[in-house]
Amino acid sequence: MAITIMTRLLMAIPTLFGVSIVIFALMYILPGDPLVALLPPDAQPKDREALAQQIGLDKPAPVRYLNWLKDLMRGDLGYSYTRKRDISDLIGTAFQNTVKLALAAAAFGISVGLTLGTLAALVNGRWLDRAISMVAVVGLSVPVFWMAILLIIVFSANLRWLPASGMNSPDGGFLTSLKHMIMPVLASSLGAIGVTTRMTRASLLQMYGEDFVMTLRAKGLHDTQILLHVLKNAAPPIMTVAGLQVGFLLGGSVLVETIFAWPGMGQLIFQAISSRDLRVIQAAVLVIAITFVLANLTVDLLQTIVNPRLRRGV
Amino acid sequence: MPTATTDSAGGAPGAEADIAARSFLGEVVHRFVRQKTALGASGVLVILILSAVAAPLLTRQDPLRGVVSQRLQPVGTPGHLLGTDEQGRDVFTRILYGGRISLATGIVPVCIATVLGTATGATAGYLGGWVAAFLMRTMDMFYDFPALLLAIAISSSLGPGIKNAIIALSIVFIAPISRVALVATRQEVVKEYVEAARLSGASTLQLIMQQLLANIFSTVFVYAAGLIGVSILAAAGLSFLGLGAKPPAPEWGYMLNSLRGSLYVQPWVVAVPGLFIFAAAMAFNLLSDAINEALDIKSA
Description:
The complex is a heterodimer. Chain A has helices at 2-28, 45-55, 61-73, 87-122, 127-141, 144-158, 174-208, 211-218, 223-260, 265-274, 278-306, 309-312, and strands at 79-80, 85-86. Chain A is mostly helical. Chain A has 2 domains: 15-76, no CATH class; 94-313, MetI-like (MetI-like fold, Orthogonal Bundle), CATH 1.10.3720.10. Chain A has a two-stranded antiparallel ribbon with strand order 1-2. Chain A is globular, with a radius of gyration of 24 Å. Chain B is an all-alpha fold. Chain B has a domain at 83-284: Orthogonal Bundle (MetI-like fold). Chain B has helices at 15-21, 24-33, 36-53, 55-58, 91-127, 129-143, 147-158, 162-189, 192-199, 204-240, 252-259, 267-294. The longest helix of chain B has 37 residues, at 91-127. The model of chain B is unreliable at 1-15 (pLDDT under 50). The interface between A and B is large, with 63 and 56 residues.
């Protein structure tokens, strides 16, 4: 098993390189002058050259990539000339806030999805199954930013139950911060609910068709006991999909955070888009993409530990 | 309780007799129209597309010009069925015209990505070796990003605008489609008809174009159809963030964002554009599910 885990870890390295190459290419190779955003409109050609030299833009692309990678390894994500701060400082707290929201939304979305998916599989073909399947499609089709606005209309503007923005009130304690979380979590978890429900239902139905279920039934096991066996066997694909959701929530939080003024990566990206602060956008996307890769890797490793069949083959 | 034989995708008893009587296409169409949700979703889509195309016939008002004195009228105001926005423009008119941009930015990237992704995947799957390794490793680099985030990164580098949003989304979808095409091609190339075509002197290009594409088409098509809903949501999301349609263009996502400031004044007018994004995405998702079921390709 140790070898399998080592192989998985090693396999993540080229993936991370790939991610860094894409981001680097987006920053420096695409059409458009990266200096325009950094220089004042009345800059002289001489200033341009000085700045190009200072940032290292006068060197060939591979050299710049290696330099950039070296900085990255030290945790240096560059400097935001718009915000006048180190980008790693900007990202630090924002990242924590996003992870908090994404994990809460993933936990909620995956547990609701598992419950609904299992229920749908148990009543397969009946109206409840069809209703749940419809709910899952709705979850996949609702624009999160629209759902966020609807929630605000209902729970903030009309009912005045929940705060419409921010992560906490100045004098608020744990309960207040929990209240701040409800709507962002609800809005961002819909996609995860949809995907997890569909995947759970499909995997369970497939497992119920396997021969071992008939054997268990013939042995006289209860329905609940059979369900447990089926769940255990259907777990790997469900886990993979559920694990992906954590990553997607990290990325998808941009829209939800923007609407609820949640001080996370999403809001940081939105502000950077508004001020055309490309470096902040790219750095934020890079950090989220790396987290995405690591989250998937974690799921992979968990799978290897939980599922003995995966231990042998790589 | 579920039984071992219950399968939602399976046909009704006696379906085999039907299959024998119809052509493949006839059978698919028959299985498609049998599903009520499929018909409903198609209806919604036809209405959305037609009303976008025929917008000038359905409304006399200007989608770009508003009357300042008529700002933020509620839903149901005479002359402004869906109210007016923060600049006094008729929301119904903007929704109709906006459908052109919103539906196009959702559908076009999937079409572009289907062509390019299928070409990449089929080439890699047929040729194998270092060509496949190079093509697919390149694709993998894009595969490891959450879709919306990659689209944000690309379109912010290219600059805001509908064209750039379409390019960004196309790039995002090429990687997953090429993977599907690769797997489908690998399953096909080992079959005998490919060998037969090769022995009868077909060139590589002929083989890919005439034999392989026809046989991997349904797999790729089903997968790509499922992406349109995703694409519509992502395109609206980009515009919402200020990366897609530029003001004052009517686009559903951008409309939702520009109306957001009036949330406490006219909440239900603010909700209108989102309803259309939702309806379009939902209809495409239901439609792709129905096609999937009609072609009897198991979705995972």
